[in-house]
Amino acid sequence: MTSVPEDINTPEIMIDREVLGRNIERMAAAVQSKGLKLRPHVKSHKVPEIAALQLAAGAVGLTVATIGEAEVFVGRGATDIFIAYPLWVNPRQGQRLRLLSTRARIAVGTDSVEAAQALAANLGDAANDIEVLVEIDSGHHRSGVSPARALQVARAAAGAGLRVTGIFTFPGHSYAPGMPLKAAEQEQQALGEASELLASSGFHVARVSGGSTPTAFLTGTSSITEVRPGVYVFGDAQQLELERCTMEDIALTIAATVVSRHEGDDLTPRRVILDAGSKIIGGDRPAWATGFGRVMNHPRARITALSEHHATVVWPDGSDLPSLGELLRVIPNHVCVAINLVDEIALVSNGQVVDRWRVAARGRNN
Amino acid sequence: MTSVPEDINTPEIMIDREVLGRNIERMAAAVQSKGLKLRPHVKSHKVPEIAALQLAAGAVGLTVATIGEAEVFVGRGATDIFIAYPLWVNPRQGQRLRLLSTRARIAVGTDSVEAAQALAANLGDAANDIEVLVEIDSGHHRSGVSPARALQVARAAAGAGLRVTGIFTFPGHSYAPGMPLKAAEQEQQALGEASELLASSGFHVARVSGGSTPTAFLTGTSSITEVRPGVYVFGDAQQLELERCTMEDIALTIAATVVSRHEGDDLTPRRVILDAGSKIIGGDRPAWATGFGRVMNHPRARITALSEHHATVVWPDGSDLPSLGELLRVIPNHVCVAINLVDEIALVSNGQVVDRWRVAARGRNN
């Protein structure tokens, strides 16, 4: 198990190169063995060097969340990008999409007649240069529409001059205990239904896109053609607690120093305080999580509170409290928000920092 | 009420210049009228231009959380900085503190004998150039020690050659409904007790530092000399829901576009989806909060879920759902984490973007 190299300045995000490589290979092999295409979501890492590893392992292209992320990855050589988001495109964004479409194959999402019309209007004569996938709600109840309504949106998009080539969904309700299989079944059902409906109305549904890290190994193959998991490259405490990975699969941790130490008493918990807080770990905490992250090699320790620069770690009875100055590694609940907090990450191999990679798409929210 | 200027690209953080100025003046006047000194915590904004406004309004110096933040603000001319954190200082950090102490008056926190000794050892012959304040736990039970133990830490620090000039606490348990007054009373009690104990043992306790935005107007004056509120410059949904400010006092909002719109049915909520998610609003949500932030001018709307790039806003019955493409302004739960997500903010006055300020200390976690 990797310890914290001497030249790390805590708090700092470190990536285990071997675990990263193994995670990338395993997902690629698993998805390909099912006959599905892998289009990993790079919002989870925002690092061009990692995208290059994913493409080298057989990914057919990349998924991003924003036009800004697409610009960064196309700028670093990506040639096939899906902006898996129901964009509302204004003239400035239309211009940016036109430019992107001259440099790469670009697809975007839509989930309403109005958004499709705004997209077409602001793409102008480039409307046909960009592919459009209609977003389906498969049970997450965020964006996306029902299969029946998807046909209406697809017709409006085609009528406005856009090139409708498929459908997509995000089974985000898979992120809860006991939900991955159910969410994968609902995803299969909703995409299958929408796909048939569009096909029977004359659409060539070339791309049927689903997937998430919790469901990627469970995705049905009867209608789905590609999956878009993201978190799997690093793993995190949510995936650990959802039993989607083990501690050995955790590639991203936050190196932290014990700065305060308390044996506790009747009124106060037995705890250590780390110099890593929500400004590097990220504050995400689903109701079912056991804390604000986990501690590597200390499975019974619990992060019970997170301030901006302090993690309060309640320590298990029967186990010595770490010393002041000791270095620990925190596993964040959600890697996507953790990596978006730093400008670079330390790549570690065999206990040494072997490289630092820029988080090139950090903060590209629009 | 400010609307969203035409040249804002959503999602983007905008600051209302007039509200910001008013918040800065009001806190300065309130604190000074009590005979207290104001040393605002600049981790809440990380913007040198805002620190300059605070100093111009009478702040005696600045508070920061990390050595990196101190470096940014000293680099921009700050001359009196308190790193209100129980630092565990290694040789590299000792060197950075030595350098800072040649350019500004620097104070740091400590809460253990061991940390004080590590600090002194790594400052070397500069140990006496830096002031040390012992951190007291006034009820938040994070870092800090009891008044009795504070004396032990102060003696060890002085014995190691450090210049102990005071004590400090953070009444962080004030961040909950019904808690601000109780936390302020406990702060007063703990700081008073520790102050007396150190003074009766021969320490000159020049600085007794407390405060937070929820307690700043309630701070006792019998022993406390300065307060360190931070959030008050902007206000946020937490302060709103703790009844520490009104919507008129909110200076920072996230401009967002409605990208998806659903009238809802038996199974799904009536909602709009905004293009702002946890990567710009921040994911903080205390258990007592009504949601993941609030919506300006729509007090009954509730942000029930937050993904990285989507806010799900459940809309009140009897009020028209916003249109697709409509611009709304989100009030984040916690401004300190929101501003740390962006590289610059748009300063708005009378409906126009009048400047863009760099968040110069963004990401300076160590």
Kindly list the characteristics that best describe this protein.
homodimer, 366 residues, alpha/beta, TIM Barrel, 2 domains, 9-stranded mixed β-sheet, 8-stranded parallel β-sheet, 17 strands, 29% helix, elongated
Notes on the protein architecture:
The structure is a homodimer. Chain A is an alpha/beta fold and about 375 residues long. The first copy, chain A, has two domains: about 15-235, Alanine racemase (TIM Barrel), CATH 3.20.20; about 240-360, Beta Barrel (Lyase, Ornithine Decarboxylase, Chain A, domain 1). In chain A, about 30% of the residues lie in helices and about 25% in strands. The first copy, chain A, has helices at about 15-35, 50-55, 65-75, 90-100, 115-125, 145-160, 180-200, 235-240, 280, 335-340; strands spanning about 10-15, 35-40, 60-65, 80-85, 105-110, 130-135, 165-170, 205-210, 225, 250-260, 270-275, 295, 300-305, 310-315, 325-330, 345-350, 350-360. In chain A, a hairpin with a 4-residue loop joins strand 13 and strand 14. The longest helix of chain A is centred in the middle third of the chain and has 21 residues, at about 180-200. The mean pLDDT of chain A is about 95. At the A-B interface, helix 5, strand 10 and helix 9 of A face helix 5, strand 10 and helix 9 of B.
Rough outline of chain A: elongated
| CATH level-1 class of the largest domain in chain A | Alpha Beta
- Low-confidence runs of chain A (pLDDT<50, min 5 residues)? none
Distance between the termini of chain A: 38 Å
How is the secondary structure organized here?
Two copies of one chain form a homodimer.
Chain A lengths: L11 E5 H17 L3 E2 L9 H9 L5 E3 L2 H9 L4 E7 L4 H11 L3 E6 L2 H11 L7 E5 L11 H13 L3 E6 L11 H21 L6 E4 L15 E2 L9 H5 L10 E11 L8 E4 L3 H4 L12 E2 L6 E5 L4 E4 L12 E5 L3 H5 L4 E6 L2 E7 L8
Parallel strand pairs in A: 1-16, 2-9, 3-4, 4-5, 5-6, 6-7, 7-8, 8-9
Antiparallel strand pairs in A: 1-10, 10-11, 10-15, 11-14, 12-15, 13-14, 16-17
